Amino acid sequence: MSKPARLSGRVSATLTLAAVLLAACSTAAAPIDYRTGGAYPASRAPTYPGGPFTGGPRFVAAAPSQCVPFARGSSGIDIRGDANTWWAQAEGQYGRGRTPALGSVLVIRTYGDNSRGHLAVVTRIVSDREIWVDHANWHGRGEIAVQVPVRDASRNNSWTEVNVWWLDTNRWGAKNYLVEGFIYPR
Length: 186
Description:
Elements: H1 9-26, E1 32-33, E2 38-39, E3 58-60, H2 67-75, H3 86-90, E4 95-97, E5 105-109, E6 117-127, E7 130-136, E8 144-152, E9 161-166, E10 171-184
């Protein structure tokens, strides 16, 4: 009787990673409380204005990421460089505008002087004043957060200022952020 063939370390590691990723795709990710490192107890599970929900805003277990590579990979918009340079770089290469669209990248200025920025990918349009986004590193820990509500905080519904749902406190953030606009995938 012959011995079964052994897989090389690289092949074995690749197959293991593929199995983990496929398993993650087949189940809904449970909310993760990054303050404790574990799942939220049922009494503290995230809620959203209007009541509890399933599959709403949550952190997902994934490799740490930054907003730029996450947005590029999720949207297919192939721009490189810091988030605060994306709006200018998109000119002439991608459509840009003030109206959210599925798959578009929301470009946020995290400081008023545009020295820093943040990118988030639009995954749902709830109303003319609210969208949901997926993004990475908003809380500064390399975390990935999905289905995060963002609301238009501008006076004239121009999407020039937004407020972002804060998963650490399960409520709307205390600060509004200026917005460059939305970059649309081809």
